[in-house]
Design a protein that fits this description.
Layout lengths: L1 E2 L2 E4 L2 E4 L30 E6 L5 E7 L4 E4 L3 E4 L6 E5 L4 E3 L94 H5 L1 H6 L11 E5 L5 E5 L12 E4 L1
Antiparallel strand pairs: 1-2, 2-3, 4-5, 5-6, 7-8, 8-9, 10-11, 10-12
Amino acid sequence: DGMGNLRVTKKGIRLEGISEFLLPLYVKEIHSRKDSPLVLQSDRNVTVNARNHMGQLTGQLTVGADAVEAQCKRFEVRASEGGKVLFSADEDEIVIGADRLKVTGTEGAVFGHSVETPHIRAEPSQDLKLESPTRSLVMEAPRGVQVNAAAGDLKATCRKELHLQSTEGEIFLNADTIRLGNLPVGSFSSSSSSSSTSSSSSSPSSSAPRQTIYELCVCPNGKLYLSPAGAGSTCQTSSNICLWS
């Protein structure tokens, strides 16, 4: 019949209350009552080991005061309904099977190496920021990289140089207004004013009229500048190209 809190039943042995074992306990299954949880408690840590038929350790779960450690070939976290894999980890890769990965830390997510993903987006009404404080930020895709800001502005800033490069195609700027600020303005000089420098310097009325229409020109070295419409080239070389006026 048993003794004290230990009862022998048809289904096995039943323990009532808190039980303490001073030596190893070998059982096939441990169940709690239907109306109470199963609690395993220790003053140091709780370790669950799994061994094969040769006695070799194949899996271990340790719950300690500072950390929870799992040592196994593959670790999985599954959903309660359907058994969908929410998280899995092995020596080769880590898979997150949830519909959305949310990082709530103020510093965001830090990746030491490359990140491969088909879609990155921010929370609704929140800004999305991709930043590399001390190195460069590279986005590559075999069929193109698409960046959309449906309800806001798109801003790309850097400390040194910003390169837009297309190896086989073209760079297409399509907008109602395209502004290029801080461009140097070329000086206007005509043949008439250069022939009569003495008269133009003495009389302000004989100076060339102020130009209100400019051409955006590019030098062979890639520099852009504004030149008065119809004026001669102010670039260092003679083969400048005017884009539009």
